Amino acid sequence: MKHISSLLYLVLVCIVLTSCGGKKGESPMAGAGPGGKPGGGPGGPAGPPPPTPVDYMIVNAQVLENTLFTTGNLVSNEQVDIRPERSGRMTKLLFKEGTLVQKGALLAELDRAELEAQLSKLKVSEAYNERELKRAKDLLAIDGIAQEDYDRLGLNLDQTRADIRITGVALDKTRIRAPFSGKLGLRQLSEGAYVSPSDILVRLQQTDPIKMEFEVPERFSRDLKVGQRVQFTVEGINQNFRAEVYALSNQVDAGTRTLTARARCANPGGQLKPGNFAKVQIVTSENRAAVLVPTDAVIPILNGQQLLVIKGGKVKMQTVLAGQRLENAIAILEGITPGDSILLTGLLALKEGMPVIPTKLVESPKPNGL
After folding, report:
1. How many CB atoms are located within 10 Å of the residue 205 CB?
2. Full-model pTM
3. The sheet that has 100-101: what strands, in order across it?
């Protein structure tokens, strides 16, 4: 029993000596950080993050025109299909296709021989009835003829003269004239053809000035007024044209919910053609103190938009009210004022209160350069 106790004592002594040998050589400041202070090594509390370099922009007030974009079609100021007013054979064509003509210009003639012969016959009857009426008047003065017979001769003369006027109108209708000054299109009939009032000889169009017809959505209809200036372009012509609104429809189309408007544009050179497709810009209002920021700088949130603003060298999340959206910029109506600095980079990484260093100043967007 004494032997077992001695053995246990030796085992305990070995364990104690082994534990003491494991700690030999350790520095008493092994757990201290740089400078001998504990807690500064790995796993200790970190210092404040360094400021982040960012691009920024100083917003300023600009003049911004609120512009409505729509499409339209060009139409003739006046247009008519020239047709004969009576049936007959076409004997003369007196115009060239695609030329300008003045109001009243003679374009074509129908056969007149039959009507001229009828007119000659009526004029002979007129002369005869005039002589008969004169003779009857002399007889009536001496009671040589009854009043009833005299009145009948007067009626015959009046009827003959009425027939002469009717024949004269028919003769006038054999001459086809231009109802207004304009440009002729392509003729559809040939000389010698028998025509009727349903046949179209040629189309006449007046294109100076030229009209433009366009539609605006119902919600913008109150912004459009007679006399308002609009700007438009057409395919194939590298030029901006200006027109003036002269008429508005008196109702909104129930199917498209749009209001139709018409404007006139000077077209002395004939560049613009009826049927041209037009891209229309309408300035509905003007804001002389607009604040524009790049589209990429605006952060969408649940109930609106935000901008990151620099305040005292730190980030501030500023809620804003956005207005008109342009191609590469947005007008800000509320939330920032001219002179504020907004961040343009690091928008997703930066948080409220983080320090930043403005490094690159970016120029404000221009309304006319977007």
Report:
1. 18
2. 0.62
3. 78-82, 202-206, 182-184, 100-101
